[in-house]
Design brief:
Elements (H helix, E strand, L loop, with lengths): L3 E2 L2 H11 L3 E2 L4 E2 L6 E7 L4 E6 L9 H15 L4 E6 L12 H6 L3
Parallel strand pairs: 1-4, 5-6
Antiparallel strand pairs: 2-3, 4-5
Helix pairs in contact: 1-2
Length: 107
């Protein structure tokens, strides 16, 4: 899992928080699923920019997952605003699943 960031420490905190956001259909968190592509911090404006994807463009829980990502980050970084950019480029593949995630899914 390669997440792009401009602040390694805050990204590490973000990813730890986002491990509590679970895709309800799969039962695995968004980090281990490899749905998070980028987490950047604008310190001057106090904004967190997240670029993420879903396992499919037609994910029925997509809006709920995106909202959960936003809320989790707002809870951890109360003085920031969060902007989530949902992208399907590159398209998600199961190769993005972490080792821990693959063990969880018995792959």
């Amino acid at each position: 899992m390669n997440v792009i960031t401009n602040n390694n420490l805050k990204c590490t905190i973000s990813l730890a928080v986002l491990q509590d956001v679970v895709d309800p259909e799969i039962g695995l968190n968004v980090v281990d699923l490899g749905l998070i592509y980028q987490v950047d911090f604008d310190e001057a404006e106090k904004i967190i920019f997240v670029s993420m994807t879903l396992t499919t463009q037609f994910c029925p829980m997509g809006e709920s997952i995106v909202n959960a990502v936003e809320q989790a980050l707002l809870k951890a970084f109360a003085d920031y605003n969060v902007i989530v950019n949902l992208t399907f480029n590159p398209q998600w593949t199961s190769e993005r699943i972490s080792e821990e995630g693959q063990e969880f899914l018995n792959r």
